[in-house]
Amino acid sequence: ESQLNPNYSFENFLEGDSNRLARSAGLAVSNKPGGTSFNPLLIFGGVGLGKTHLAHAIGVDIKDKYPEKTVLYISAEKFTQQYIDAVKKNNRNDFIHFYQIIDVLIIDDVQFFSGKTGTQDVFFHIFNHLHQNGKQVILTSDKAPVDMQDIEQRLLSRFKWGLSAELQTPDFETRVSILKNKLYRDGVEMPEDIIEYVAKNIKTNVRELEGAIISLIAQSSFNKKEITIDLARIIVEKFVKNTKREVSIDYIQKVVSDYFQMDIDTLQSKTRKRHIVQARQLAMFFAKKFTKASLASIGSQIGKRDHATVLHACKTVDNLSSTDKQFRKYVEDITKKLSI
Ligand code: ADP
Ligand code: MG
Question: Interface pTM (ipTM) of the complex?
Answer without folding.
Answer: 0.99
